Amino acid sequence: MERRLNWYQAVAHCEDRGEPYVLVTVLGVTGSVPREPASKMVVTGEHSYDTIGGGHLEYRICQQARQRLAKQDYTSELAHFPLGASLGQCCGGSVSVLIEAHPGCEQELVIFGAGHVARALVTILGELPWRVTWVDERADQFPAEVPANVRIHHTGDPVGDAPALCTGKQVLILTHNHQLDFDLCRTLLTAGDCAGIGLIGSDTKAERFRQRLEHRGFNAEQIGFIRCPVGRSDVPGKRPMEVAVSITAELLSLTASADQTVTRRGLPWKELKGLIQNPETGDMQE
């Protein structure tokens, strides 16, 4: 567990970070049970917060919750658990719980470089539903505080770390070093599995990089995967915040066309009412 949070602090923590999570609520109980109705806990891919009673019951529910997250199954379920020998608990009662999975944010971005433009960009992205990894070799370039949805990755080898960091994600290359920019472009094109590459620079820089990449054996389609100059041409200005606004506008337009928003499906009222009234006919998890 990262730090001790109760369930509602954990919900706020996950929402701020854009992290998927499952909220588990005890809806009803019969007989002797470890926790009372309305007890709640939060389960993420790696951590759990608060408790609905511990023991094998909680272990099994955490397993089911993480299976849902792994399958990106963001639906709701009412489950009924008799607290008998099959759960290794001898309370003799039973518990009905509501399991609600929440998707968090689906868009992920990796930013290389912590200069003026990157710092302005992170200020904007802190207000948007993105999960951001911010990479630089220079620890002193990162601000003392960053938005909750931004994770700092300080490394001595950004090029070596790039393939693992960037798989399936949008990438922005905003570093202070042209050779580092080129090495990142070459490495990411070789890996070939990020969602897109934006490179800061002029038309002249774009042409030079195109020639160098051609010389390294990359074809026109591969090179065309790099957007340089990055940002929307119809958003003018060269100040860091103006460039950051331009880049953000481009990112939003790119991701809007491939929207990955997940529809949350709750339980139909008739099904929920029937399960509450007749818990023994519900989904028996033994």
UniProtKB/TrEMBL annotation:
Annotated ranges, domain XdhC- CoxI: 16-72
A Pfam family hit: XdhC_CoxI
Domain of life: Bacteria
UniProt domain XdhC Rossmann: residue ranges: 109-251
Name of this protein: Xanthine dehydrogenase accessory protein XdhC
